[in-house]
């Protein structure tokens, strides 16, 4: 078995390991009613703690990426997993002790989400940099797509775990707490695999204004902000298009998002390995599909909406690992973790900006967020088209 085959197998194991991040994202959101009951906190306060966790994520991602280059990817993932488990144990204690006074309850939840957000920020960038340092450009994109698929599978499993609350309310909480243990599946490796090469100390700090990095941060922000517009209004939009009540619209949105997630996973696992296009062309293709898909969502027909969302999701699934692979191909090996971290921060900022903008635009017109989403995706197409391809 050659080295590239070994690295691709490593990416499969890493995709399982990083699934904990996707699992937590959806499980925590789905468990908000249980969290409110167990802690006595209101939904807005729980949302605030989630927002603080996102802020910690944005600040921590590039720093954690640099940590992986300094101490080795395997060691960094291990210690981040320990910190994640500690954060989840704080959360578990809060849930099982029973309603505490307001300040201690809010304080413990804030601590748990801040610690979790800061540590979880490093998981994907470190794994992405680890794989990127092992493979040439073509195989790198395939491996990065597998990591993204692992994240998506984790999101689906997180939603499924929440369903078990009807059988045993504590079970999904215990699964959520135990989810960081998946990081133990990160493959053991020798120093040449787990650490960056001799160039790792060539740059102590990678600025987000670095000319090699900045266009990709723009791409990541535009693409995720575009898709964020659609995600936040999906339930209310389906309620209008289907002429149903809030509960039915919520169920329809949930089913739709599962279908889209499955389509994205299938694209990442089955389609991307068979694409014979360079990264730049794939990014352009993906962003064009995203723009076309969100425009189809504006059509007031349910089956057309589903087709449009699947198309947009497939576009995201094609574009994201390709601009990440394109970016890491431009960076020194010791800079790849920090670059992936900055890109992860841009993704979170884009998702947040899309949710805020889309929510407000929906109050103006049901179609306004979709047209804004298409415009953002179109700008991403133009940005990718203007960038020079470079294969390393």
From TrEMBL:
GO terms for molecular function: transmembrane transporter activity. The keyword Membrane applies. InterPro entries: MFS, MFS_dom, MFS_trans_sf. Residues 10-392 form the Major facilitator superfamily (MFS) profile domain. The chain crosses the membrane at residues 12-36, 48-69, 76-102, 114-135, 147-167, 213-238, 250-271, 283-303, 309-327, 368-387. It holds the Pfam family MFS_1. Keywords: Membrane, Transmembrane, Transmembrane helix. Signal peptide: none annotated. The keyword Cell inner membrane does not apply. This is MFS transporter. The lineage of its organism: Bacteria, Pseudomonadati, Pseudomonadota, Alphaproteobacteria, Hyphomicrobiales.
